[in-house]
Amino acid sequence: MEKEDNNLTRRDFISRTAKTGVALVTTGVLGYWLKKRERFPGEVELSTTMNDFRVNLPANLPDIVIVRNSSPAELVKSAINELGGMSRFISRGDVVVIKPNIGWDRVPKQAANTNPEVVKTVVELCYNVGAKKVIVSDVSCNDARRCFRRSGIARAVKSVGGYVILPEKRKFKDMKLGGKVLDVWPVFTPFVETDKLINIPIVKHHNLAGATMAMKNWYGILGGRRNQLHQNIHESIADLCNFMRPTLVILDAYRILLTNGPQGGNIQDTKEIRTIAVSVDQVAIDSFGATLLNKNPEDFGFIKKGYERGLGNMKLNEMNIRKINLG
Amino acid sequence: MKIKNIRILRRVSQTIFLVLFLFLLLKTEFRGTFKKSEVETIRLNYPVRVFLEFDPLVVFSTSISTHSIYKGTIWALIFIGITLIFGRAFCGWVCPLGTLNHFFSHIKLRRKGAKLIKSNKWKSWQIVKYYILIGLITAGLFTSLQTGLIDPIPFLVRSLSVSILPAVNYGIRGILNGLYQTNIPVFQHISDFSFAALGSTLLSYKQTFYHYSFLIGVIFITVLALNRVITRFWCRGICPLGAFLGLISRFSIFGLEKYPEKCTECNRCLLYCQGGDDPHPKDRWKSSECHLCLNCQAECPEGALKFKFFPSRKRTQITPDFQRRRILTGIVAGAALVPVLRATSGLTKNYNPRLIRPPGSLDEKEFLKRCIRCGECMKVCPTNAIQPTFLEAGVEGMWTPMLIMRIGYCEHTCVLCSQVCPTGAIWRITEEEKLGIKTGKPVKIGTAFYDRGRCLPWAMDTPCIVCEEFCPTSPKAVWLKEEKIVKRDGTVTTIKRPYIDPKICWGCGICEHVCPVQDKPAVYVTSIGESRSKTNQILLEKKTDTGKK
User: Fold this and answer.
1) B286 pairs with which residues across the strands?
2) Helix H or strand E segment including A281
3) Which end of chain A has the least Cβ crowding within 10 Å, N or C?
């Protein structure tokens, strides 16, 4: 009987040969295919993007509107009004992303983050003209949960129906900035995947850049090793401004930080000057901001670079500046 | 109530406590709730440390080592009281690790029938846990608290926080990020939706990483796996909390009454016995081993077993079969452990300069009397800086917390670690006390130093000063000097070079964290100057009260 068991039937022979054959062919094909895929694991080629959220505006608008001496909400409202109202910038159904400075785990009176009332008012104005969704975000330096909470911005924004997005790793995407020093960097995608973008920086002292205002605020869209940017700070700021063209810039100078920047900590380093400036030109608004710190636009490398690269105007005397005093 | 219903009640109780435990553990994190009216202070919304505060071994062992009871740990007296009345009900009804062991012992039982019955008979090795307890308590008496290594509640909190949950996070994130990166809208929506759903529950705000997480996980999984060999092996043979409750259960007035005349020797009572306490009517019941799971009474078809108040103790053994010599061995081992550990250099001489304890931590010797290595501080730290030590604090300090600034840093105004510490190893401090707002003396955890051979402005004539930008004190501890330099090509220029003011620096480590010289930062923190130590100081300064009560 044993002998019979060992007998190979024809059926068996065919089936086993076929299985072995299929396995052999599969191995060969798979090997060939994978071999063809061999290449050095390098970076994927990206094309340069420029994020232009500007809108067409009438030529007779003032280059900068400066409003002084009132509450943050009133200052913002009257400044925007002077430019013809928010509807000039935001259309019905737009998704609007707002980029305040929420860099630090500080409270409002320490003037290290944008004033929460200013942000809140802008959110309201956007909704008033029919924005579909208003999102506020920033890539903070300190722990974002603490920054968003203690700055008061998250709460202020939520109280008027705005959305708060904390930075999360998966929403960063490598993008080609195509700058002079910044090439490919991870960018927090909500800032580029939107209809309109409003930059709301605060005026602060900064030891290396001299100051941080609108132009430097774009540091907060980047992830990755952004601590390297200091090595060529002025050029990298200009690179970022070339990459990001916001719909509107609202400069919060309600309470500014004069020294120990950019995060301060001591209320004696701050000064309440109750001023808001609005412009669509990021270089121009920083040039004005410089004067609030008792300096000239020429004192700042990044402003000069921005001007030289045609990103905006730094000659305050050439501009049509509208000043309003509500006091 | 029928005994079977009471058994259901027990299962409900086990489930509730396990779920509550996991819920509180997942809530041991500030997730960014923006609804509260207060803006300035950040606290957790739930009393996340209660399981540790209610742990009888925590209060017993820390009161042995510190001769006092710290804040909420007084609550554990409730379970001590329950044990004095009912016996080890905690093990069978409450303990979350006990419940996990119970679950993994009984899901798809591997042993059946006679084998199962035999394995559930009392075994002489079950007495080992008492000797472990005796050794640990003796060590505690001589100022080295080691109970936390295997006290079930700290053990479970640590294993889950430092190993299992981060691994679960990593896995889920991997899958969801993979879906998101496909750039296919449907998958991205699924990913976003899952993140939104899990983001406030199972997933932490960001992926955390822990030193020696793997080792801690392997130990935990081994403990669970041993249940497949012997039912509740940990609870029967190792658990020092079970041993402690077993010892004091001798006073309990509730227990098992046996009616041997009714017994038909079917052995059903042994089928599902959890504690291995010999409920069989013909044997002597080992009351110190019983978890009060009530399975024996529920299984007995003859009514030969009954749990009741004031049972007769004719067939009960209330103290384990101690051997005097082994008790002595336990005591001697525990007592000898301390000098052996301490005579090793490390605690007093040649200590690790990178052993940076969380803010509010007590002086090292006092710290080691209190820290139960539960890992709550590691779980709650928003920057992931607090890590379990392996040998950095000596063998004695294994799994105690230390800050690794390359992973995180100490957030200037955060005191969450001190808020969750159940035993006061990290004394509970407020933001004001941490920053020294009233006293003018902040709580220092170390001091930063520059490695000028690696620092960009110092060694490479390149502007940088990210450390200065991030330095959170006011005025900044990092200060700059504008210095004239001659570059390689002969050009003369100026550069800002950073210096540390050791009077202001409190060692938060954010400078080390953000230094662009990533692999080995050009600025780093060591423990020198830490407030908790009288000796680990550089500057001649009159020490003032740190503001702690």
Assistant:
1) B317
2) none
3) N
In Å, how far is A228's CA from the nearest CA of chain B? Answer: 6
The pLDDT of B52-60, averaged and rounded, is 96
In this structure, which CATH number among 3.30.1330.10, 3.40.50.11440, 3.30.70.20, 3.40.50.170 belongs to the domain A10-325?
Answer: 3.40.50.11440
Give the separation between CA B377 and CA B401, rounded to whole angstroms: 7
pLDDT of B38: 58
Q: How sure is the predictor about B80, in pLDDT bands with cuts at 50, 70 and 90? A: very high
- DSSP, collapsed to helix, strand or coil, labels residue A173 as strand
What's the predicted TM-score (pTM) here?
0.93
**Does the CB of A148 have a partner CB in chain B at under 8 Å?**
yes
- Given a cut of 70, whether residue B542 has pLDDT beyond it is no
The answer to whether B498 contacts chain A (CB < 8 Å) is no
Q: Collect all residues of chain A within an 8 Å Cβ-Cβ radius of residue B176.
A: 170
Residue type, B141: L
Angle (CA) A105 A279 A304, round 5°: 80
CA-to-CA distance for B220 and B233, rounded, in angstroms?
A: 13
The pLDDT assigned to A49 comes to 77
Residue B409 C-alpha, separation from nearest chain A C-alpha, in angstroms:
10
Residue B351: what pLDDT? 85
Domains of chain B, each with CATH number or no CATH: 1-22+47-345 (no CATH), 347-440 (3.30.70.20), 447-526 (3.30.70.20)
Best of B466, B482, B501, B518 to disrupt the A interface (most A CBs within 10 Å) is B466
So where are chain A's domains? 10-325
pLDDT value at B362 more than 60: yes
Q: What residues contact residue B15 under an 8 Å CB cut-off, 6+ apart?
A: B99
Return d(Cα B389, Cα B386) in angstroms, integer. 9
Report ipTM for this prediction: 0.89
The helix-helix angle for A233-243 and A301-308 (nearest 10°) equals 40
CA distance B258 to B263: 9
Is the pLDDT assigned to residue A3 strictly greater than 70?
no
Strand partners, B317: B286
* CB neighbourhood size of A2 (10 A): 5
Phi, psi of A20 (to 5 degrees): -60, -40
What percentage of residues in chain B have a pLDDT greater than 90?
A: 79
Chain B residues touching A207 at Cβ < 8 A: 465, 468-469, 480, 496
Residue with the bigger pLDDT between A218 and B107: it is A218
What's the angle, vertex CA A143, arms to CA B418 and CA B476, rounded to 5?
85
What does residue B293 show for φ and ψ, rounded to 5 degrees? -75, -20
Please answer yes or no on whether A105 and B413 come within 8 Å at the CB atom.
yes
Banded pLDDT at B181 (limits 50, 70, 90): confident
Cβ(B388)–Cβ(B378) under 8 Å?
yes
Cβ atoms < 10 Å from Cβ of B273:
26
d(CA B247, CA B225): 27
Would you say the C-alpha torsion B525, B469, A302, A98 has a positive or negative sign?
Answer: positive
Contact B456 A231 (CB under 8 A): yes
In angstroms, the separation between the Cα of residue A187 and the nearest Cα of chain B is 15
B523 vs B135: CA distance, rounded Å: 43
**In chain A, helix, strand, coil percent, each to 5?**
40, 20, 35
- The answer to whether B177 and A170 have CB atoms below 8 angstroms apart is yes
Yes or no, beta carbons of A143 and B473 under 8 Å apart: no
| Inter-chain residue contact A230 with B476, CB threshold 8 Å | no
